[in-house]
Design brief:
The protein contains 21 helices and 14 strands. By secondary structure, it is α/β, with parallel strands linked by helices. β10 and β11 form a beta hairpin. The structure holds zinc ion (ZN).
């Protein structure tokens, strides 16, 4: 209690239990030079939600629970979402899931090895992103500090569920959206859309995935659509997390992290666009050959997928979740690799016959993904090429090829189809039989019969295997009815 009182006096919060609900108070601004806005902290209710969240996220404790709840404020509209009774707990749970990602040692320490598969696939070839590796490590380190802490001057995020920008219904799957500056609270704000609450927890995705066959267990498509990953993704849009100079302030020299668009030609020659979101598209963006690091460091899902993949890797016995493969040219490769065809020339072609094609291409290009940068730069794979395999360590290329072979073993030569059996009841075959039956060939001269058969138009039309007459008579299966005089 002493701690809470201390915190209260510092933050200007009143937390006496008599009126803990719906308090409106000015609090110390974050970052320090930000304008002071109004926040609503209900320590009692938030603490209850935080404790409920611990079981949802399968997190064993959370330190000084009451203090931890102070990081997230307002929760506008969250308790009145139709059909969702525990929205606040699910929001806390997502943050707790993200904290598991934050605990990955190389992220915490900012010591990522850029030559490992996850880094190569989501952040780009190490030789091409070298100038930005230091900045990326700084972002990972910063991200890893967004854990609960008692320190009252720390970060705070305004949470909403009331969809202030009316973006939740745009597109099919918007789960959340974020700004560095909410006009009301002056704080960074994440709005959680109804889809977020239908999304699986990261812990459940992993415990289910662990028991599956390798092609599903090591598939990032199982792990990215989880509350923990959504949190990691949304945090990348906050400029003070990524040290960015964004539209709402300057927190460092990085560019604002947005949701970039990528554009390709499809196999029908049509030019199509999609958001660089989810593993396939992020892996394609990381193949961009020009100033690669400037792109992967600016796309929220490249950074977040890299971080999530590192945590998933840890959880899967230190085996990297390599699917979906985005790889070298070839025929369809189940389960997902047939969506993109990466040609040896460097062109990337979208496979219009893939079952995922319609889902993948932006159905509504006017949808705003990133509130702070509604029209992000487009990476145009129609005009320029992707990085070639030569940019990657040969060990990685060999591994990738081995993964491809695993899901798409080289085709066994097809056994030769046996010739169809002739239909001996068909008119041509009956005619052939009659002709051979009327033959003048001596009984012992099978070759004579073969020659007659080969020159008989009806026997040819019947597709009789004339040479089989040379076999012993009991092997003349289709010719059981042929009378050899
Ligand atoms: Zn985003």
């Amino acid at each position: 209690m002493f701690f809470i009182l201390l915190l209260s006096s510092v933050l200007g919060l009143s937390v006496s239990s008599a009126h803990a609900r719906a308090l409106k108070r000015d609090i110390a601004p974050f970052p320090a030079d930000a304008e002071v806005g109004t926040v609503n902290v209900d320590v009692e209710a938030q603490t209850a939600a935080y404790i409920e969240a611990l079981s949802l996220s399968e997190t064993e404790d959370g330190g000084d629970v009451e203090a931890n709840t102070i990081r997230l404020v307002n929760f506008d509209g969250c308790s009145s979402m139709p059909g969702i009774s525990n929205a606040e707990a699910q929001i806390y749970s997502g943050w707790q899931q993200a904290q598991k990602i934050m605990a990955v040692q190389s992220l915490k320490d900012g010591t990522v090895d850029f030559n490992t598969a996850g880094a190569l696939e989501y952040l780009g070839a190490a030789g091409l992103n070298a100038p930005r590796q230091g900045d990326m490590n700084t972002i990972f380190k910063n991200f890893a500090t967004l854990t609960p802490a008692w320190w009252p001057f720390g970060w705070r995020i305004h949470v909403r569920c009331d969809d202030p920008m009316v973006l939740c219904s745009c597109g099919e799957s918007k789960r959340a959206y974020t700004t560095t500056y909410d006009i009301e609270s002056k704080l960074a704000r994440i709005n959680f859309c109804p889809t977020y609450f239908k999304t699986e927890t990261l812990n459940k995705a992993i415990s289910d995935g662990k028991n599956l066959a390798n092609n599903q267990k090591f598939d990032m498509n199982r792990y990215w659509s989880t509350q923990g990953h959504i949190w990691a993704h949304e945090l990348m849009h906050i400029d003070w997390v990524t040290g960015a100079q964004g539209p709402t302030g300057r927190y460092g020299n990085n560019a604002h992290v947005t949701d970039m668009k990528i554009r390709f030609r499809d196999t029908n020659g049509r030019v199509v666009k999609t958001t660089a979101y989810e593993p396939r598209a992020a892996k394609i963006l990381a193949r961009w050959a020009f100033n690669t690091g400037d792109y992967t460091i600016r796309n929220a899902d490249n950074l977040a997928l890299f971080m999530t993949s590192q945590y998933v890797q840890e959880q899967l016995g230190n085996q990297y979740p390599q699917y979906p493969l985005v790889d070298i040219p070839g025929p369809d490769r189940p389960p997902y690799t047939d969506l993109f065809i990466l040609e040896e020339t460097g062109s990337i072609i979208l496979n219009a016959t893939s079952p995922d094609y319609e889902l993948f291409v932006d159905s509504d290009e006017s949808c705003v993904w990133d509130e702070d940068e509604p029209t992000p730069e487009l990476v145009d794979f129609t005009a320029l090429a992707a990085a070639s395999d030569q940019e990657y360590p040969s060990e990685y290329v060999d591994t990738l090829n081995a993964w491809v072979e695993e899901v798409n073993p080289p085709e066994e030569p097809e056994p030769e189809e046996p010739a169809p059996e002739p239909d001996m009841d068909s008119p041509v075959c009956i005619e052939c039989t009659n002709n051979l039956g009327a033959s003048d060939c001596p009984a012992e001269d099978l070759q004579c019969l073969v020659d007659q058969c080969n020159s008989d138009a009806s026997c040819q039309a019947c597709a009789v295997d004339c040479d089989s007459f040379l076999l012993s008579s009991d092997e003349l299966a289709p010719f059981g009815t042929v009378v050899i005089a």
